[in-house]
Every structure is written in structure tokens, then in C-alpha cells.
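Subject: Sanity check before I submit

Could someone independently write out the C-alpha cells for this chain? I want to compare against mine line by line before I put it in a report. The sequence has 158 residues.
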Amino acid sequence: MSHLTKIIIAFCLVIASYLTPSYAQIRHKNQGNLKVIGSDTIQVNANNGDIIEALFPVKNYGTEILTISQIATECICFDYHYPEQGIQPGATDTIRLFFKTKNVPPGPYFKRAFADYDEGSIELILEGNLKIIRPQYKPNEKTVIYKPKQIVVRNEDN
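---
Independent answer below. Compare away.
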């Protein structure tokens, strides 16, 4: 095998490792006793500047209290609220993600957050499209400027 062939094979293996999810990613995705009730994905379109409050109900299917240790997000555009005291066995509570769109570029978006707890983590996804609303100028009238709003959405299976 030539040196160039070895380099090409090594390059292909590196690229394939980035394109294929690892065993750990597959094994820990929404596995364990804490599960999202309904879909783990919320689709919502909004205007740039809006705040999207996404509600994800979760249930503890285990026999012990489950405590969420952190919410890990992909960007600083998120705030969140989760049950810090833990979730009792058989109980349902809500994880709230606040997606602040002000400094996010317009167009399609795909954002993820991970709720890490004792046994693993669950993935929560927000996706949709952001649109810019420009000020409206009309002669002899006051300029109309878009006032951002808060949009509250639940996952669609509830």
C-alpha cells in the first residue's frame, strides 16, 4: 500500500468519525428513568428579538428521587429553569428553556440543551426559523418599531 493511499484512508476514517455518532452518544440519548413526556423537539418560528419559552414536561419512572445536576446548552442564548429539589418517583415536573433570539442570526435554527441527572442526560431540542422585522417608515407618520414578545410553547404531544 502506498504512502498516499494510507493518508487517504486515515483522512476518510477521521471524517467518518465526525459524521457517525459514537456509541456513548447513542447509548445515553434519553435513556434512563427520567423521560420527556411527549416529544423532545419543539418547532417554533419567531421574530428576531422574541423570547421563546419552551416547556418540556418530564417524568421520573424510577424508584428513587432524580436530581438534575445541570442544564448544558449549546450557546449563551439560553436561560433555563428546572426542578432543583429533584423529582420524586412517579412524579412529573417541567424543564423550561428560555431561548433569547436577540443576537441570533435570522434564518433556520437548531438548538439543543442537555439536562444532566444522576443516571445520564436527556436531550431537548428547539428548531424553527427566525425572521427580522424591520422598522416601518411612512411619510408624516410615526415610525412603527417591532416590540419583541415572549412566546410560550409546549412540546406538541401534550
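---
OP: Matches mine. For the report I'm noting this point. Strands lie at 34-36, 41-43, 46-47, 51-60, 68-73, 78-81, 92-100, 107-117, 120-131, 150-154.
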